[in-house]
Amino acid sequence: MKTQELISTARLMVDNHKGILAMDESFPTCNKRFAKLGIPQTVETRRAYREMIVTTPGLGEFISGAILFDETIRQKTKDGIPMIKVLIDAGIIPGIKVDTGAKELAGHPGEKISEGLDGLRERLIEYYQMGARFAKWRAVIVIGEGIPSKASTIANSLTLARYAALCQEVGLVPIVEPEVLMDGSHTMERCFEVTEEVLHEVFNQLYIQGVLLEGMILKPNMIVPGLSCPKQESDNKVADATVNCLMRSVPAAVPGITFLSGGQTSELASARLNAMNVRFKSKLPWELSFSYGRALQQPALEIWLGKEANVPEAQKALHHRAKCNYAARCGEYNSKEIVRIAHQVKKEEN
Ligand code: 13P
User: Fold this and answer.
1) CATH of domain 3-349
2) Do the beta carbons of residue 30 and residue 74 sit within 8 Å?
3) Which of 46, 139, 191, 270 is deepest in the core (most CB within 10 A)?
4) Which is the closest atom of ligand 1 to the Cα of 261?
């Protein structure tokens, strides 16, 4: 195992208050988001959109790594530069999504299992040779009446652990993502209970498979009420519940925890991450960071709308959200005023 390389890549992914940009939407997900805004759903629009993202000036000030989809890692900008090279030149580590999607779990209506283990070793070797240095696998856990079942929790945890071990074998840092979905009317307490149980099983399986905890990143959900739960919670309550849950279930050897946004608004995702860092930063064994998809991209996508003329404004919006989340990692996010942060970046560069 490339132990030292894994440890140093994992550290780079969470150091200096930077976070990870998830831009790895599969065809159906990306197309659905384009369709909602009337953007044509073609190979070329997806390429142009991803080019807009990776060429955003100054993105590397706040973003340490970007997760790509298989289509994107093979694409070039309109000037013929491979997307992956644009990222590396900007100081951003390229990563790759490697699960092939969440399918129905046999015998368990309403539950999911992520697929993609067959042939994974060969795919990982190819991605490493292309320049990727980390990977992502998303497992989906659904909360509902009588679910998640033990079957879903164990099957998804074992699959995540097998994926993580394969990644480390070739030198890719695995992002282990067990996402407990926000869909539903469950309370924050129920989300806590389910997430705690899932994380215990995930780390149990990672241990059994011999995964190097120092060379991986955990990407969990925050502890939040379901989207249609009548009782929503304050940022501080979400921060307390999330950190308490993680303290109970994530070993201190893991270098970083990078949250998914999961359908929270951009502002909420930043405000809650900020609250966690304000209240707990100095007391935690791991870095608390972000690996947002929608919470980073959505404002930019809504400005871009598939039009070349909108690229500069869309890039400004993406840069702004990246800066907001960098500020949240410092515990200095304020939705109205984050000017101070600009000075801090300058200082760190010197
Ligand atoms: P969201 O932040 O939009 O949930 O996406 C993160 C991600 O990578 C999901 O796998």
Assistant:
1) 3.20.20.70
2) no
3) 270
4) 2
Ligand 1 centroid, distance to 350 Cα (angstroms): 33
The secondary structure of residue 132, as a DSSP letter, is: -
Cα angle 94, 97, 102 (rounded to 5 degrees) comes to 165
- SS3 (DSSP) at 244: helix
- Per-residue pLDDT tens digits for 145-179: 999 999 999 999 999 999 999 999 999 999 999 99
Say how many C-beta atoms besides its own lie within 10 A of residue 192's C-beta.
18
In the block, which residue shows the tokens 């071990």? 165
Strands 102-104 and 112-114: antiparallel
Q: Is 99 in the pocket of ligand 1 (CB under 6 A)?
A: no
For residue 138, what are the β-bridge partners?
177
* Token output for 298: 């959505």
Residue of the CA atom closest to atom 4 of ligand 1: 262
What tokens were used for 211? Answer: 């995964």
Whole-structure pTM over 0.85, yes or no?
yes
Is-contact 22 291, C-beta < 8 A? yes
Q: What pLDDT, in 10s, does the model give residues 3-23?
A: 999 999 999 999 999 999 999
59 Cβ neighbours under 8 A, 6+ residues apart? 21, 53, 90, 92, 318, 319, 322
For residues 21 and 292, the answer to whether their CB atoms sit within 8 Å is: yes
